[in-house]
Amino acid sequence: MAKDKKQPRPKAITPKGFRDYFGAEVTQRAEMLSKIAAVYHRYGFDALETSAVETVDALGKFLPDVDRPNEGVFAWEEDKDWLALRYDMTAPLARVAAQYRNDLPSPYRRYTMGPVWRNEKPGPGRFRQFYQCDADTVGAASVAADAEICAMLADTLEAVGIERGDYVVRVNNRKVLNGVMEVAGLSGDEKAAERGIVLRAIDKLDRLGVEGVRALLGEGRADDSGDYTKGAGLTPAQADTIVDFVTAGANGLDEGVIDLIEEATDFPGAASNLPDQSLVLKRLNDLVGSSEIGRAGVEELETIANLLSAQGYGSDRIVIDPSVVRGLGYYTGPVYEAELTFEIKDEKGRPRNFGSVAGGGRYDDLVKRFTGQEVPATGVSIGVDRLLAALHAKGRITTDTQGPVIVTVMDRDRMADYQTMVAELRNASIRAEVYLGNPKNFGNQLKYADKRNSPVAIIAGGDEFEAGKVQIKDLYLGAKIAESASADEWKDRPQQFEVSRDEMVTKVRAILNGQADG
Fold this sequence. Notes:
L-histidine binds at residues 88-90, 118, 132, 136, 326, 330-331. By secondary structure, this protein is of the alpha+beta class.
């Protein structure tokens, strides 16, 4: 009789494009989300949680390929219906706004936080699951709603620890770009391909510079490796119109001009402070000429600038910048992007700007898919993982978070006493735990405490219980002494001492406070 084939053991590996998050990372993200939610709540937005799964029908045309519903999303067929994991937070909002339109207030202001999934090729720092944190206003046609989102975004960045001068919120408008395209002779369905190349070219301004963009607007360009990218084939006059548009803001200024500007500002190094918003708006107004939609877009930008100025948000925080084009194929009016302006080192040690951490804009056509009626909407999405990475890069947070106080076990028959001790610490709002492994080897208990990054260990055996005492071991001090102190300092700075049982909580708190101050 043949033996049954042995079932191979499953491999303990994370699926490609996904990752696991441990203690400090989870805690830091939760703390950041709490700070963001506090700002959103202060602005009057209500929390909303939607299902992680939507029908492909609800996701609709915003899928990368509607003919293949599993392209770009994680999708499966169930009872002849296609379902998919949400790939952003906006499509579910559109469905909610349509489904509950008779019950929700109008305008409806909501924020939401959670993971989204993209069935895309993963890469360094690019995962198939990541967190988004969105805030949107549905049902408000006024650009005052857009101005409010920009102000809230600036406040949010500062609330999580990005200092003023280290970020800028850049604002553009799809209508202005449409007007410029119209002036350049690029409007109409027959010019859709050229417009797509133009948008991609503008998006490369930071990396390629003005001349690189100009080449892509014309015949094309070859990169350093010799790879050739075909251009939009615009005439020199058309290319000039587009270049004049994208360089109308601070990003398009000559470096020498930027240096002169920064010398006169309160935030040296922040090239986004100037030029003056009125000069940018005047330049844009000239560029759109008689284009009706272009002039409407410039007026909207002017209104946003005035509303923000009235609230005290100057160009050190929020600027009009025509070089912002991300999402312009999706948005219908104002579009905004939060960029961190400080330098970090890349994997090869080269300095570069950190870049974008949030983006959004006005999308007045999304809810219309469900209701047949145009419903104005605007909102922003913050990349939480990017923000956390930025704070790590600035040294504002580290992965070395403090663990719990460890109550060691010297006598397993006294487990009830140890549990009483840990309860007293917890009741005093001190994070603590009893060692629940094998207590036979005391050294292993201290190794466990070290692995947990514990600040303090409580030690009590038969002699201590009989005398009404406990030993308190300052693990943080011990690590510092072992790291840098001489042998004499070990004597002068005792890391372990005995206190009466009723002083335990007070002494532990004093040590924790001292470590925090240090």
